[in-house]
Amino acid sequence: MSQLPSARPGAGWLWRMAWRDSRRSRSRLLLFVSAIVLGIAALVGINGFGDNLARTIDEQAQELLGADLVLSASQPLKPEFQPMIGPYIENHSTEAAFASLVQFPKGNGVRLAQVRSMVGDFPYYGTWLTEPTTAVQEFRQAMRNNQPVALVDDALLVQFAARVGDSIRVGRVVFRIAGRVRKTPGQSEFNASVAPTVFIPGDDRLNVMGEADSTSLLARTQLIKPGSRVQYRAYYKLRPGVTPERLRDPLVDIPSQENTRAETVASRKQQTGRAFSDLTRFLNLVAFVALLLGCVGVASAVSLYVREKVASVAVLRCLGASGRQALLIYLLQTALMGLVGAIVGAALGTAIQLVLPRLFAGFLPVAVITTISWSAVGEGVLTGLLVAVLFALLPLLSIRRVSPLRTLRASYEEDASRPDPLRLGVFGLILLFILGFAYLQTRDVKLALGFTGGLVVAFGVLAGVGQGLRLLVRRFFPVSWSYVWRQGLANLYRPNNQTLLLTVSIGLGVFLMATLYLLQGLLLSRVQLSASGQQPNLVLFDIQTEQKAGVGQLLQRRGLPIMQEVPIVTMRLTSINGRTISQMKKDTANGPSSRMLTREYRVTYRDTLNPGSEKLAAGQLPKLGADGIPRISMDEDFAQRLKVKLNDTLVFNVQGAPLTTILGGTRTIDWSRVQTNFLVVFPKGMLEQAPQFHVLLTRVPNNQTLGLVQRDLVAGFPNVSAIDLGLILQTLDDILSKISFVIRFMALFSIATGVVVLISSVVISRYQRVQESVLLRTLGASRRQILRITLVEYALLGLLAAVAGLLLAVVAAWALATWVFEVAFVPAPWPLLVLAALTTALTVLIGLLNSRDVLTRPPLEILRGEA
Amino acid sequence: MLKVENLTKSYSSGGRALTVLEAVSFELAAGDTFSIVGPSGSGKTTLLGLCAGLDRATSGSVWLNGVQLDNLSEDQRAAVRNQYVGFIFQNFQLLPTLTALENVQVPLELRGEKGSARAAQELLARVGLAGRGHHYPTQLSGGEQQRISLARAFANRPTILFADEPTGNLDADTSATVVDLLFELNREAGTTLVLVTHDLELAAKTQRVVRIKGGTMISDSAAPVSSPASSATL
What Gene Ontology molecular function terms does this protein carry (chain B) (predicted)? Predict the structure, then answer.
């Protein structure tokens, strides 16, 4: 026997063949490339934006705080710890910040503003951006000389058309505006627009000792009264080499400072990152879904391509090419096209990543530096290539088994019953890829496993649905129905049917898109507020007890209703069931968070529930017990987090006086209602004599009345603040519409990829159906009959796949809402039904477009063309 | 050159075995020209597929150039084809995405030979299509496509050439040109030729003619057949 021939061409030939073969079929690979382009564009856009945001936060971390260490408390910072930290600090500033109505005497404009009375050279990091730039020096000079000079946020000046050089009234003092503040380190534009700030010279004695210097400008404003809500802060610049944590940790142990919050650059960075976690998580999910849809698109587009190439492969096999060589030729082609798609996608994604920060401008805490994120681009290109190869391999593997016998018999079918271990291997790799990718996007093993598991289940269910449909139609075939129906239905189970493939690919596409849609609605509804109807729209607070009647009369004079009047007493927790706060703080593993233990509690007293916003969850309403101990009521969720249960004993420190209470009941509270809601409610009969202030809620019919009320307040009760909810809601609405635009914009990529998937799925079936339809036409079927047969087949497939995908999406969205985003889930049925109808219509439309050749051209011409 | 022994091919259809070729045996020497004739469905194309190693027999053996094909994998058979076999098909089977020249180059390139473009160009000139090298199959007439197919079949200097109804898709005039060219090239190269056709006139141009009916060899022009059911060893 002769030796077997062994000469083989090198890799060069494979590349050459891949190139040659692709020349006349590149347009066929367009679907494949567009699936990659869209998936990768979304991925690179979102990841690049995330990178830019994270890097900017990192780079500008010190600027986020303006100092190395910031201590804040609702009481003046007592000086006990000063000697302890003195050697470590290079410089420090203090401030007292509070909300107050401010007035522009020139136009009589009044608005609630954040007043920050400052002492020192804050900020130590970042630039305090003012116009003119010399305004900061002038302000600091005025601080030292106790001159009435203020710096005012741009938003406030713009609203009242005020200019530098005009004056502004803060309490009883009129300040000259020395500069317009464009940006203050540590304050986002969002904060600046919701509560614009007026900076005035402060009182160091007040800030540190709690005793105001009567000659200070702050004291002369007469805005700070007992019970006023003031935030005291100290900003420290540390000596080189001193870490802020070194100072922060011992501070926590000083009893008088237990209510002091310490913030370092690292903690602010973490907090800022966390604030955006929901948004970035969702955007990551969008990228993940877009990419997965891209994967489905790749697999279906390549199956389509492979079908076209079978004849060529058979010839190559006949001429002596091995199965591996044939596979490699097409694998190289798809990899190359995948690379092109990935590069185009990465370029498109880069453009998106450069635009996203602009869309978010004013909402982000930092001005994001929009540089091209090469890591995101690199990741995108590699992912695109990987996806192209991995998902194309699945259909491409069948090339290895194309028999050369097809050159002699076009109808020859390979034996597909033999299991292909390589195919199983590729499935394994795909699962691994999805798992790995989900992990990279979420950085959460459980979530990644959940996503992957969910997808596998969805895949299995859809395959089951497809298989079930075939069996059901066959088993219960309606023999008495018209020919058109019988033919259309029979197409679902006859040899070479596309039922399984189309149900799985269309169903997966619908499933992913609908899940995304449902989540998008969830997240947006979570942040939407309602200010409609007859709800209050003006909140007056910081009203002293002796001012209550006067403010009430002021409102009555203007014909405004007092919709709610609530007394507020501030207090702190000192012990729970006999364990002191200090003891509990040390139990970091099991105890409640330190913040919950040390926070200031603003409580009210009443014996009833707030109608509409509160429900009794357990126990009883607030009530004074027969033993004289008040039974208090707590927010149900808060009680759980504080780890207290009914009948536990809680001792509060009510501005110096200890007060023992028993937890008598819990309430569920709807926090989205515009009402005064309280975590803790006391019964009547205990706190009436305690130092307190009051909040009044009213509704003003228009801006003119609002202006009048605000002016009356500034003149008669300068310490009383008024929050214009309309203004806040409008500002929030602006921000939210920006967020929802970005979310919808990114979701568009998923939808576009989904449509590509749908097109390629349906186009695949063309090769099965065209010949049959032509044959039917040759036998005398009318165009109308062919049209209706196609319609029946695709409408059934589209509808079934869409409904199955939607049901899966509802389950997935519920799971994600419950376990990932922790929000209640109520799906809106109408949009889902519309999506089902749209998918079905689109499937039918593409199916019909696909068959248009058969309908419009003579049968013979098509038979020749297809041959 | 080609030895076929007791070749049988059956398919399973509707749960029962369907035998399309039964106990066929013959042997061909180098340079022989041989045709298989028979009506449609008689099994002649099946026989050609088995001889060329495109398919596996249910039983029996095929030796091609001394290599027994029965136990070879599909890839090993592909290597044998590339080394020793040339093909001509009824529907030409040119690769639609390759130019005429590239189509002729493929068998040479598969062998890893250098200078395939020059050799392919010479072959194109030999079949009278020197100027059409850069045309794609769709830009060529049926006769031209079959001539390209001839050039490709001889490109790897095969020892045996299998032709399946080479004139089946051509008109009479073009057929005559292609057939003349086929025999001319075959003679020049000294290749063994196995031709499947139902055109008796074409079959008569070969040295030997075998008739097949119902999967069984019923006559052979080189030796008398003893009975219709038995096979003939040549």
Answer: ATP binding; ATP hydrolysis activity; transmembrane transporter activity
Q: Domain holding B186: CATH number?
A: 3.40.50.300
Q: How far is the alpha carbon of B224 from chain A, nearest alpha carbon, in Å?
A: 30
Q: Are A13 and B93 inside 8 Å of each other by CB? A: no
> Tokens standing for A609?
């529930």
Kindly state whether B9 is in contact with chain A, defined as any CB-CB distance less than 8 angstroms: no
Helix segments in A198-276, DSSP class H: 204-209, 217-221, 244-252, 265-275
Query: Which chain B residues in 76-135 lie under 8 Å from chain A, judged by CB atoms?
Result: 76, 78-85, 87, 89, 91, 93-98, 102, 106-107, 109-113
- Tally the residues of chain A: 867
The H or E element spanning position A28 is none
pLDDT level of residue A328 (50, 70, 90 thresholds): very high
Burial class for A535, CB neighbours closer than 10 Å (0-12, 13-18, 19+): middle
Chain A within 8 Å of B11 (Cβ-Cβ)? Answer: no
User: CB–CB of B112 and A16 under 8 A?
Assistant: no
Of B80, B98, B113, the CB nearest to A5: B80
A420 assigned to some structural domain: no
Amino acid type, A143: M
Rg over CA atoms, chain B:
18
Q: Is the pLDDT of residue A532 over 50?
A: no
| Cα–Cα dist A310/A317, whole Å | 10
Of A391, A412, A433, which marks where a domain is finished?
A: A412
> How many folded domains does chain A comprise?
4
In the predicted model, what is the mean pLDDT of chain A? 81
**Is there a single domain that holds both residue A642 and residue A559?**
yes
Rounded distance between C-alpha atoms, residue A344 and residue A835, angstroms: 29
| Interface pTM, i.e. ipTM | 0.86
Select, from the ranges A63-67, A204-208, A467-471, B59-63, the one with the highest average predicted confidence (pLDDT).
Answer: B59-63
Partner residue facing A408 (CB), from B49, B80, B136? B49
Q: Hey, what are A436's tokens?
A: 């790995």
Q: What span, in angstroms and rounded, lies between the C-alpha atoms of A531 and A538?
A: 11
Q: With H, G, I as helix, E, B as strand and everything else as coil, classify residue A200.
A: strand
Among A400, A408, A411, A864, pick the best mutation site for testing chain B contact (most B Cβ within 10 A). A408
Q: Do A7 and B83 touch (CB under 8 A)?
A: yes
**Ranges assigned E (strand) in A606-656:** 614-619, 623-624, 630-635, 649-654
| Gap from A496 CA to chain B (nearest CA, Å) | 17
Question: What range does the domain containing B150 cover?
Answer: 2-220
Q: CB-based contact (8 Å) between B65 and chain A?
A: yes
The single residue listed with the structure tokens 């290749």 is: B191
What domain range includes position A800? 445-531+730-867
Mutation site, B97, B101, B135, interface A, largest A CB count within 10 A: B97
